[in-house]
Write a structure and sequence with these properties.
Layout (H helix, E strand, L loop, with lengths): L8 E2 L3 E4 L6 H8 L16 H13 L8 E7 L5 E7 L7 E5 L8 H15 L4 E7 L3 H9 L3 E10 L4 E11 L9 H5 L3 E2 L8
Antiparallel strand pairs: 1-2, 2-3, 3-4, 4-5, 6-8, 7-8, 7-9
Helix pairs in contact: 1-2
Length: 200
Amino acid sequence: MKEENTPLIETERLLLRKFTEQDLQDVFLILCDKEANVFLPWFPAETLDQARKHLYDHYVAHYKRPCAYRYAICLKSDNRPIGYIGVGDGDSHDLGYGLRKQYWHLGIMTEAAKAVSERLRQAGGSYITATHDIHNPFSGEVMKKIGMTYRYSYEELWQPKNIRVTFRMYQLNFDGQDRTYAKYWDTYPIHFVEEGIGES
């Protein structure tokens, strides 16, 4: 895969771009929304300093690397972040995303996810995976809409929230290979395939 550092992506309604330190207030609005952060691997931000640390650790620090796909989701109308989407650096190539509650159910995340996955495919990426809590089916619908298919489920003692969560794992192969990323299956003793989950 050719190395790219969060190249600008434009869709019909959105600009997907790098976060900057000038986005701190909008990052805080995204991270402090308790309902929007229920299914995410961190607690809602309570202060600007917490949002600043998140902005640096999850975005600014990664932009110093030769390759990164970590985006602010912005409406073209004002170019202000309303959410985020990115592909992890590890071998899972995990697609993760979040959106402020007031922008849910408008197709925004599907539009962003299609654009990012297509950019990764064009760059020579082999595959992406994504997981969602079984109690968050709307996230799974985004995965289906961009062509990902359900592979298996597994139970994890999720940190830092220290709760047991059953995740569903989806995958999209860009190169036509028949593969399933098996690390979660191999790592967590409680794993299984649910019938009918991959159907729309």
